[in-house]
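TL;DR need C-alpha cells for one chain.
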Amino acid sequence: MEGREMVYTEANKKADMKYKKAHIKRIPLDVQKEKYDEIKAAADKAGETVNGYIKKAIEQRMENENGSVE
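>> reply
TL;DR here they are.
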C-alpha cells in the first residue's frame, strides 16, 4: 500500500465507535497547565505521546506495588 492514502469512511468510523464502546474506558484527568507542560516535556523527551507516557507510568507503578500486572 505504499504511496496510497487510507480513506476514513463512515464504515470505519462506525467500527471504531463500536470497538471503543465495547473495549475502551475513558479516564478523565485534570492537571494544572504547568503540570501538563512538565508531563508533555517528559513525554517528548522519552519519544512518547502524553497519553502513552501516562499509561506507561501507571503500568510501572502498578507493577511496583502489586508485582506483575498481567
